[in-house]
Design a protein that fits this description.
The complex is a heterodimer of chains A (about 350) and B (about 325). Chain A is an alpha/beta fold and about 350 residues long. Chain A has helices spanning about 50-55, 90-95, 115-130, 135-145, 155-160, 165-180, 195-215, 225-230, 250-255, 260-265, 305-310; strands at about 5-15, 20-35, 35-40, 65-75, 80, 100-105, 185-190, 215-220, 235-240, 240-245, 315-320, 320-325. The chains are: A alpha/beta (about 350), B mainly alpha (about 325). Bound molecules: adenosine-5'-triphosphate and magnesium ion (MG). Adenosine-5'-triphosphate (ATP) binds next to strand 1, strand 2 and helix 1 of chain A.
């Protein structure tokens, strides 16, 4: 696959807790194509952040990658399995920030409170450009701040994070992440902490910059509206598994998995006279010591006693390019057809 | 920033004035004054007390003035550098104190330096290697240091030094150097005597500082900005010292404010046990014998040290933590 930049195969990540083993990510597979955006959507706690952290090997104990491959295709088409690298080793550190950059959910908390914006930005620029002079790094920082629409960037470099608004902080984060020209940008809910107008501005900005710099993106969110705007390909996650995966048009036109359908119904539609929004009853179970059953069984309105409660379905290609994990669409039991859940 | 420091400075001055009043009142609180204990002393030794003589003494020392007047006399004299006379030692208070202040400050500062130099690295290590053997050992030693009374630790260490190194660590100098002029040999002799007081005075402060450092770093390590810095490709060690340790040091800086008084008061008890020539020990004796000019001056000096320590820690903290706003 020459056009692929990142390929995750059957990724499993667990937290070893006193209560037992929490399977936060349970066999996730996806691929991100060059200059395209994969949107990952799912409720809180479904394992989106753990997936993202695993890619850059940032998962800290008690969390651990238990299996799977994370194949990164570099510019010269060399393949590195990030899952096999030492988590603090030289190799992964060379990739972090430089090849794959990441933007986190809470911009304010993601910046050190006791260092100026300038000091933090320049530290990372200098780190990945050894031999660069300080004033050159400062030029780049100023340039990037300008690009992301920070007003008065020279002053901002002297500021501390608490002197900036949340939206401004997120722009700084984006500017920092993009200052080393990464090939892949992982965005873990970069706009959830911001108010709606700022959110829209940031998303527009990121789309613009992506086109300009030719980056690929992994965009994590629990907001369907955001997905519709940024994603080319969509993966819906539930309880550590991808339950549906297809291109962005199909997911809105023809959602197949009962969970995706319920997600769609929980969004207000313009012009429809819905009295109450449909919500998904119940909460996400905690994935500790769950037996073989469909993860959505306890909340699914199509669930069938027997098949759904005793076996967990595999992700199968129901239509060309449309993968669904549900017995309703003739899925087989997971593990029965190992190749079925790989692309 | 400038006005913040000026404000703090004014607060410090006001506090010193208030504390001088408090110090004065405390000294006046015990029933009787120096004269009554002097009279009792005379009577106990069987001497006859002449009421006329007592009356003249009373007038001579201004003990018959009303309290508030005595306070102003006391303050006025102090500002002129006259701290009154110690009845007990029969010496000017100024001479007594002057010989002890350098030692007090030296012992306290060296102790503090040592405390921080030990507590910070071990606190960091304990946090980074949480639940490791070293962490457990440091934690247990820390609790022992916190729980053990100073005088007991002093006695243990004295016995230990006597047995192992064969010299008595009491005082700051061996007898032969006690009144000798400064020389290299005298300095070396003092260095040999310093470890025990430093350990004894510093133990509990060190233990609590270590806990502060450990828990504050444990909190910081989990922060998002650490993950973010790691996601940028920073080396683990560089990252640790540049970000979380740097932030976790802020509570340590503010601890200077309470460490200094703790060390000064810890030094009092230790000084008595170890026979150290510090202001604390002097004050203790002065309070026992109701030697009010001496006691008052000691209290005031210890207070001033404490307030200056707090002032310095406030300024350090505001320089170190940009989140603190001056208003
Ligand atoms: N440090 C941790 N220790 C223990 N369990 C954790 C830890 N971090 C995450 N988990 C668990 O892993 C699962 C997945 O968490 P994750 O953070 O990936 O969710 P998410 O999809 O990112 O949710 P959100 O939308 O709230 O960010 C959850 O069940 C969570 O409780
Ligand atoms: Mg998350």
């Amino acid at each position: 696959m020459p056009d692929t930049i990142l390929e995750v195969k059957n990724l499993k990540a667990c937290f070893h807790l006193d209560e037992g083993q929490l399977r936060a990510v349970d066999g996730v597979s996806f691929a991100i194509q060059r200059e395209e955006t994969l949107g990952v959507i799912g409720e809180s706690g479904c394992g989106k952040s753990v997936t993202a952290l695993s890619i850059l090997r940032l998962l800290m104990p008690p969390g651990k990658i238990e299996g799977g491959e994370i194949l990164y295709y570099s510019d010269d088409n060399q393949v590195t399995d990030l899952a096999k690298l030492h988590p603090n080793g030289e190799q992964i550190r060379k990739i972090r920030g430089k090849e794959i950059a990441m933007i986190f959910q809470e911009p304010m908390a993601s910046l050190s409170p006791v260092h100026t914006i300038g000091a933090q930005m320049m530290e990372f620029i200098l780190l990945h450009n050894p031999g660069m002079k300080k004033n050159e790094a400062q030029e780049i920082a100023l340039d990037m701040l300008n690009k992301v629409g920070v007003s008065n960037p020279a002053l901002r470099l002297q500021n501390y994070p608490h002197q900036l608004s949340g939206g401004m902080c997120q722009r700084v984060m984006i500017a920092t992440a993009l200052s080393c020209n990464p090939r892949l940008l992982i965005c873990d809910e970069p706009t959830t902490a911001l108010d709606v107008t700022v959110q829209a501005q940031i998303i527009d900005l990121m789309e613009e910059l992506q086109a300009e710099m030719g980056m690929s993106m992994l965009y994590i969110t629990h907001d369907l509206g955001v997905i519709a705007e940024v994603a080319d390909e969509v993966a819906v996650m539930y309880l550590g598994k991808i339950v549906e995966k297809c291109d962005v048009k199909t997911i809105f036109k023809k959602p197949m998995h009962p969970y995706t359908q319920r997600l769609m119904q929980s969004v207000p539609k313009l012009g429809s006279r819905q009295e109450m929004l449909d919500t998904i009853e119940g909460t996400v179970p905690i994935p500790i010591g769950m037996g073989a059953q469909c993860g959505f069984y306890s909340r699914c309105s199509h669930a069938e006693e027997g098949s759904c409660s005793r076996r967990s379905p595999a992700l199968v290609e129901v239509e060309p390019g449309h993968f669904v994990r549900c017995f309703k669409y003739g899925s087989v039991e997971e593990g029965y057809l190992e190749s079925a859940n790989q692309i | 920033m400038g006005s913040y420091i000026f404000n703090r400075f004014c607060y410090m001055l006001i506090s010193i004035v208030l504390m001088s009043v408090v110090a004065f009142i405390i000294i006046q609180l015990p029933p009787g004054d120096y004269l009554s204990s002097y009279i009792m002393q005379l009577q106990a030794s069987g001497e006859r007390v002449d009421p006329a003589q007592v009356e003249s003494l009373r007038r001579q020392y201004g003990l018959d003035l009303p309290m508030y007047q005595r306070y102003f006399v006391w303050v006025k004299n102090m500002l002129r550098g006259d701290f009154g006379r110690s009845f007990d030692w029969n010496m000017p208070v100024r001479t007594l104190i002057a010989s002890r202040i350098p030692m007090t400050v030296a012992v306290s500062l060296v102790t503090m330096l040592f405390t921080y130099l030990v507590a910070i690295p071990f606190g960091i290590y304990s946090a980074v290697k949480q639940y490791s053997i070293v962490d457990y050992i440091v934690t247990v030693l820390g609790f022992v240091g916190l729980a053990m009374p100073n005088f007991l630790l002093a006695l243990f260490l004295m016995i230990f030094f006597q047995r192992v190194f064969g010299f008595s660590p009491g005082g700051l100098f061996s007898p032969e150097y006690l009144n000798a002029p400064w020389s290299f040999a005298r300095f070396v002799d003092m260095l040999k005597h310093l470890p025990v007081p430093i350990i004894v005075i510093g133990a509990s402060g060190m233990a609590s500082l270590m806990r502060v450092m450990r828990s504050s770093l444990l909190d910081e390590i989990k922060m998002k900005y650490v993950t973010n810095a790691r996601a940028k490709g920073l080396k683990e060690r560089v990252l640790l010292f540049r970000y979380p340790v740097r932030v976790a040091l802020n509570p340590i800086l503010s601890s200077i404010g309470w460490m200094f008084p703790q060390i000064l008061s810890g030094a009092t008890i230790t000084a008595i046990v170890l026979n150290l020539p510090t202001v604390g020990a002097l004050m203790y004796r002065a309070l026992l014998s109701q030697d009010m000019y001496l006691a008052g001056t000691c209290v005031l000096f210890l207070t001033v040290f404490t307030l200056v320590g707090t002032f310095i820690s406030d300024i350090l903290l505001v320089c170190a933590d940009p989140r603190i706003r001056f208003d």
